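Chain and backbone:
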Amino acid sequence: GSATSMAVGYVKINWDLSGELALGIFSAMDAGSLFLMHFSDNIWASYAGYLAFKACYMLLITIATFQIAVNLSMERYALMFGFNNFVALLIQTILTVVVVDSKGLGLDISTQFLIYGSYFTVIAGIFLIRSIYTITSIKCR
């Protein structure tokens, strides 16, 4: 994960044009990794899926953070990233209580992979649709 995050700094891409496309692709790869872990009974395939998920997720977070930071002034970094971390922690807590906790749905591990894989599929769809719209609108001008 850290190696892929470091590689982002060395890749020469127009992030304004391709940033959302990259977010969509890596969200789709995360979804695929989670679905692999759900549908596989092989422990080694699950480990490979976990490693792929973690690397793609770290890269996804790095790209998303970069996309946000580009549009901020230096004085707003702490406020924005503090607020983002708070909201992310709040959403993660709610999702964990609903999906994992016995007071919520209390789902088994395999079903959790299915739920989270579906979540990443929706996220990937949103990013891919938005990136296709952005790219086509720029190319049509």
